[in-house]
């Protein structure tokens, strides 16, 4: 187009036709430094706005389903770990009870040996110390078992969204054990019926 009065000026006629290659040459040769050009590209998502919204809704639904599946798997794992701790602490009670009974028998034997002059007061005191430690270990196992029961009940009442064991609000049930559960029992496995009230601490 033909203009007067400088750019943009007033269009006074169609002007002389210029080939596209000449225009590009003028642009890149800096003959007209005030000129600028740009390219705008748009590509629709789908054939229409409705299709794009439908695709977005399907994606959000799939993501929500994946999050739900992950939460369910996490809840099942929590229940299995809680059941494993109950079973482990029940076995600890049996082990510590047997150790306490042996320590009690040893103390009784040392006292009898001391009465007939075949032992010393040091060995008797040592047997008393071992019995006291065995009683402490048994009591600790009973307490850990009861705390494991509490965690298990809280987890079942809270459901998947509670995550009592996962966020640290559940009571610690195994302060002395090392390593994770090897073969965790199923979540629906029966819980041992032994409680602290049914355990006799010898003495």
Give the topology.
Blueprint: E1 2-4, E2 10-13, H1 20-28, H2 49-115, H3 121-158
Antiparallel strand pairs: 1-2
Helix pairs in contact: 2-3
List the secondary-structure elements in sequence, H or E.
EEHHH
Seen as an oligomer or otherwise, the chain set is: single chain
CA(first)-CA(last) distance: 112 Å
Structural class: mainly alpha
What is the number of independent domains? Answer: 1
Please tell me how large the radius of gyration is. 41 Å
User: Tally of extended strands?
Assistant: 2
- What share of the residues does DSSP label as strand, in percent? under 5%
- How large is the count of helical segments? 3
- Classify the helix fraction into a percent range: 55-70%
Tell me about the largest β-sheet: 2 strands, antiparallel
Low-pLDDT residue spans = 161-203
Bulk shape:
rod-shaped
């Amino acid at each position: 187009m033909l203009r007067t009065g400088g750019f943009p000026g007033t269009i006074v006629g169609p002007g002389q036709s210029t080939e596209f290659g000449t225009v590009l040459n003028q642009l890149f040769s800096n003959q007209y430094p005030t000129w600028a050009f740009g390219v705008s590209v748009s590509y629709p998502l789908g054939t229409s706005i409705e299709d794009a919204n439908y695709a977005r809704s399907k994606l959000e639904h799939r993501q929500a389903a994946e999050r739900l599946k992950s939460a369910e798997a996490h809840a099942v794992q929590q229940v299995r770990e809680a059941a494993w701790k109950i079973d482990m602490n029940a076995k600890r009670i049996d082990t510590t009870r047997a150790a306490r009974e042996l320590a009690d028998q040893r103390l009784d034997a040392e006292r009898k040996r001391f009465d007939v002059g075949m032992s010393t007061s040091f060995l008797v005191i040592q047997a008393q110390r071992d019995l006291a430690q065995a009683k402490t270990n048994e009591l600790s196992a009973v307490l850990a078992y009861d705390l494991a029961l509490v965690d298990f009940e809280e987890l079942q009442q809270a459901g998947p969204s509670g995550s009592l064991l996962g966020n640290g609000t559940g009571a610690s049930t195994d302060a002395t054990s090392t390593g994770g559960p090897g073969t965790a029992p199923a979540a629906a496995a029966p819980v041992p019926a032994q409680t602290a009230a049914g355990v006799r601490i010898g003495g």
